[in-house]
Amino acid sequence: MKGQVGRWCLCRRVLLVSVGLLIVFALLSPMRPANGGETEKCRGVKMEKVSYGGWPNCIKLSNGEIELIATTDVGTRIMRFGYVGGQNLFREYKDQLGKTGGKEWRIYGGHRIWHGPEDIERTFYPDNVPVEYKWDGKTLRLIQPVEAITGIVKEIEVTLDPKASKVKVLHRLTNNNQWDVEAAPWALTVMAQRGRLILPQEPYRPHPDYVLAARPVVLWHYTDMSDPRWTWGEKYIQLQQDPNRKTKEKIGLLNKQGWGAYYLDGELFVKRYPYDPAGRYPDYECNTATFTDGDMLEFETLGPLTKIPAKGGKVEHVEMWYLFKAEVGKEESEIDAKVLPLVEKTCSL
Q: pLDDT at position 4, please?
């Protein structure tokens, strides 16, 4: 009996030591979720002041998976967006990087904010001077000085998700005039070359079950619908950026589906943005537009035309950005199979 008790005590001590070692090992080991990704403890948003593209005063935001870089030497401009160490989904004009000052408007590349409707003098106001920035540990604000011609202040707020490939980009126009101004916030992203824009058509409804129009698709005087860069599909409109074709193409449309995507070399950039059925949009009711030439492709979204009150009235327009790894061909069945599930996934991120 005494020997059995001794063996039981020895086993009990061994068991207690083993459990203790397992607890210590669990506490010291990095926690990983079931899906193999990083935990919230291991992920977060890091802000750095960096030099980029010849501009010494830039801000980089990263959550360890994706990153973006905005310059404060000119702008407001977000010049880079992509996976950490990966390709830049945004176009950069190498001959303009690092430049400041001057009275001519420069495209620079990247992402910017305008106010519509388009007008040569008002819209192309140069953004060649430094912008103010504010960082509260979560959101980066880029604030342009008041425009002398228009009395408008342009502003972009960037909030990078700490755990997902997701960015909230808020665009704000502030009216500093002594009178009301009607304008639409206009977000323009200059995409890198050789990619393909995908815009959804409205859902199919057979005739004569439904006989009213679905939405406007708007053309410019220089739009050539027979240009091979366009693919006019049953479910999608696609526009291919081609560096070898220098002519300009543009369309606008009312996108009630609230999303569009740009595919480039195994990566899919998805934008989500609102449609206000009570809103009145520029350019024959367009909340979406795209423009391309040999240098780039622009993916543009707009808020409704709004009467912005004098002395500090504001109007805002929000885009949500997402980035995914994917291989997407031009066939609509492939877009259905590979793009739509990712668009649906954005609703849960």
A: 38
Contact 300, 281 (CB under 8 A): no
The reported pTM is: 0.88
Q: What integer pLDDT is reported at residue 43 of this predicted model?
A: 74
The HSE-up count of residue 149 (CA atoms within 13 Å, CB side) is 11
56, β-bridge pairs? none
- According to the model, what pLDDT value does residue 42 have? 54
**Could you give the CA distance from residue 337 to residue 328 in angstroms, rounded to a whole number?**
9
**Domains, the chain:** 46-345 (2.70.98.10)
| Low-confidence residues in the chain, pLDDT < 70 | 1-42
Pair type for strands 152-160 and 66-71: unpaired
Q: What is the pLDDT of residue 1?
A: 41
